[in-house]
Amino acid sequence: MAVTGLIGQRDDTPSVIDNIVRYVLSKGKDITPLTLPKALYYIQGFYYALYEDYLISDDCEAWVHGPVYRNVYNLYSDYNYGKIEKPALVDDSVFTDMEKGLIDYVIKYICCYSGKILESFTHQEAPWLLARRGLPANEASSRIIPKGDIGAYFSGIKERYNMRTPSDIQLYAVEMFGRVN
To answer: How far, in Å, CA of 141 to CA of 135, rounded?
Structure first.
């Protein structure tokens, strides 16, 4: 960064999370500021479960309405409850086939639900519950949801549903939807 500053250039290379956000917004339908952070949380969790690595380096926080990546929320909060506009250009070549495949299945099987439904999903899941332990339901919090908790929870989901490929995310999504309806 210091070197690029000295020669008058900026490093405008999007981060991994920025690339994921652009891709989700370009492929998803009706993605709102409530839906987007949950999509990122599920991408992080299922990616870890299937590939034993974290795709997103940013920390996820346990907010009242579910998991949130603060920087992403801040970029899109002006949309309130409305649909976030699709980006003009998206370079999906930055993803491996595994990454793109997983993101596509999260979009297909998770992002098909409203932000409120996804909020209900996350309010039943251990990572969010553990991070908010001891807090009243409507108390604001910036507590971090540890990546280890996300990884452990979704690894357990992988085993419980005998998940072998990203398409198996559907099994979990369908059961969770059945619980909230």
So the answer is: 8
